[in-house]
Amino acid sequence: MSDADMLHVSNTAKGAPLAKKVAVIGSGSWGTAVTSLVSPQAQEVVVWSFEQEVADGINNTRHNPVQLPDFEFPKNVRATTSLQTAAQDAEALLLVVPSAFLRQTCARLAPFVANDVPVLVLTKGVERGTGNLMATVVAQELGNENRIAVLSGPNHAEEISQGTISAAVVASKSQDVAKYFQSMLVCPAFRVYVTEDLEGVEICAAEKNVIAIACGIAVALGAGDNTLAVLMTRGLAEVSRIAVAVGANPLTCMGLAGMGDLVVTCTSRHSRNRSFGEAFVRGESLDAYQRRTGMIVEGAEAARSIWELAVAHGVQAPITKVVYDLLFEGLPLSNAVEALIERTPVVEFYGVGQQEATDKVSDGASGPSHKDQ
User: Fold this and answer.
1) What is the pLDDT of residues 329-341, one digit of tens each?
2) Residue 265: C-alpha distances to residues 74, 140, 206, 298, 333 (Å)
């Protein structure tokens, strides 16, 4: 019996599963890992994959041949390339697709998802052009925003699939929905907390990927531990300013979705965003990196969309702007360093206090100026 099957037996022995059928939409590394968490609480888990090769691999060998190939799926998991087969009659829906494809995937799912089915969004990002958070995108396509929750935290899929201790926070406007998914996911190795601050969790989840790219670039340029600490803490301040601007609680940025996820994404060898930053300095393009690894660098898309959001709200976001300029505007690396170190330091937590949350940053409504990040 595999470790996954043993976990399934031990958890379901405590009581009846929460759902007869759970649909996991997405078969990447995170989709694979989260399936290991929900399978003990469902009679059946159906994983939707865009790739026939992956669906066949899961069904025939109980392994994902592309992502986390060493993980063995429990026996109650099957895969399909049909969204209808995956979603129809599911009692819970988990969305784990790249942010750029979330809206079109939900539009295709809509005919097969009942209006009262709880939906957990694990996709991280901000929609380019609209500034919408992922939960808003899902609500616009599937309806009933009160049944939607999001999850984030310091959760590398590689470690989740191995059963190492991790934690996350589930956010929803409905505490019943948040607690439902908390019950579905929590186990001794995966602690799950709840909050109502959906906006804060989503901003943290998206922006930390951008900061991680910056950290990867810094490492490849020879930066030391002090520099990384500066990037991470000033990055956290940047996250907090954007979060406050969209109405979130700045304390969320100190928790699992903020500081927790930021630390692991900026420092871990598993982080695709940090490793892409390193590869970028070595001359590898975004497209080449994604082709080589088979993974989407969400921080690259987020750099574009979050910079748009920051400008729309008049928020200072210099690290995000530098990453955006490097990836999409041809900014030389030497100029990127200068753009940050030439900024004049001011008050450490500007843009986060109550008065500034109302006034935003009075001296930089159109974006960064020579103030400290």
Assistant:
1) 999 998 988 888 7
2) 28, 29, 11, 12, 22
For the chain, what percent of residues have pLDDT higher than 90? 83
**320 Cβ neighbours under 8 A, 6+ residues apart:** 207, 210, 238, 303, 306, 307, 310
Torsional sign, CA 95, 97, 102, 106: negative
Task: State the alpha helices, DSSP H only, in 39-161.
Answer: 52-61, 83-87, 102-109, 134-142, 157-160
What is the pLDDT at residue 358?
Answer: 39
Region 184-205 average pLDDT: 97
Cβ proximity of 70 and 28 under 8 Å: no
pLDDT at 370: 34
Are 80 and 86 in contact by the 8 Å Cβ rule? The answer is yes
CA separation for the pair 336, 43 (Å, rounded): 52
Phi, psi of 78 (to 5 degrees): -135, 165
Distances in Å between the Cα of 96 and the Cα atoms of 34, 138, 370 are 9, 12, 39
Q: How far apart are CA 54 and CA 58, in angstroms?
A: 6
208 is catalytic: yes
pLDDT in tens, 94-149: 999 999 999 999 999 999 999 999 999 999 999 999 999 999 999 999 999 999 99
The alpha carbon dihedral of 317, 319, 324, 325 has a sign of: positive
User: How open is the CA angle 204-45-81, to the nearest 5 degrees?
Assistant: 85
Residue 9 to residues 38, 42, 154, 166, 213: CA-CA distances in angstroms?
A: 13, 11, 26, 21, 40
Set 124, 208, 321, 360: catalytic member:
208
CA distances from 306 to 128, 262, 303, 315 (A): 8, 16, 5, 10
Residues, the chain: 373
